[in-house]
């Protein structure tokens, strides 16, 4: 998911913008274009946990690309907070979707989690 206006490379600026978007329940424009989205049955949806939930561009994506009847395989990273509302908020926004088990990784361990990721991907295909 690519935003139409990129986030700053300056951490504090990005944090401030993302917090403001979440507080306003904003729907930042996305430049992501998926041709023939209807032909896909399974959607892998990845994002970081920002203050207990998904970043607001994910909400834009979910509302733009309707997930009704699709299988959604969510995966996300977190700093120290774990799952929090990452799944419950996604399920509330995509009520017509079917969800696989999610994969939740700490950001610091994600680069060393190839085995866990591979196992999860295989599970989503069953």
Number of strands: 4
Our measurement of the CA-to-CA distance between the termini, rounded to an integer number of angstroms, reads 26 Å
State the oligomer: single chain
Q: Which series of helices and strands comes N to C?
A: HEHEHEEH
Unreliable stretches, pLDDT < 50, 5 or more residues?
none
Described by the principal axes of the CA atoms, the overall outline is globular
> How many DSSP H or I helices?
4
Beta-strand content: 15-25%
Query: How would a textbook summarize the main sheet?
Result: 4 strands, parallel
What structural class do the secondary elements suggest? alpha/beta
Helix content: 25-40%
**Rg over alpha carbons:** 15 Å
* Average residue-wise pLDDT: 93
Secondary-structure blueprint:
Layout: H1 11-23, E1 42-48, H2 56-64, E2 71-78, H3 86-93, E3 98-99, E4 103-106, H4 114-124
Parallel strand pairs: 1-2, 2-3, 2-4
Short account of what is shown:
The protein is α/β, with parallel strands linked by helices. Helix content is 33%, strand content 17%. Strands 1, 2, 3 and 4 form a 4-stranded parallel β-sheet that branches.
Question: Explain this structure to me?
Answer:
By secondary structure, the protein is of the alpha/beta class. The protein is built from 4 helices and 4 strands, in the order αβαβαββα. It has helices spanning 11-23, 56-64, 86-93, 114-124; strands spanning 42-48, 71-78, 98-99, 103-106. Strands 1, 2, 3 and 4 form a 4-stranded parallel β-sheet that branches. The two termini are 26 Å apart. The mean pLDDT is 93.
């Amino acid at each position: 998911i690519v935003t139409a206006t990129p986030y700053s490379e300056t951490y504090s600026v990005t944090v401030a913008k993302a917090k403001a978007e979440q507080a306003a329940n904003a729907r930042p424009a996305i430049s992501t274009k998926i041709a023939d989205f209807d032909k896909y049955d399974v959607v892998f949806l990845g994002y970081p946990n920002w203050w207990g939930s998904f970043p607001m561009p994910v909400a834009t994506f979910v509302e733009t690309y309707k997930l009704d009847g699709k299988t959604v395989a969510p995966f996300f990273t977190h700093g120290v907070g774990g799952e929090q509302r990452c799944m419950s908020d996604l399920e509330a926004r995509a009520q017509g979707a079917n969800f696989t088990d999610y994969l939740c990784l700490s950001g610091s361990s994600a680069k060393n989690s190839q085995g866990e990721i591979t196992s999860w991907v295989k599970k989503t295909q069953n």
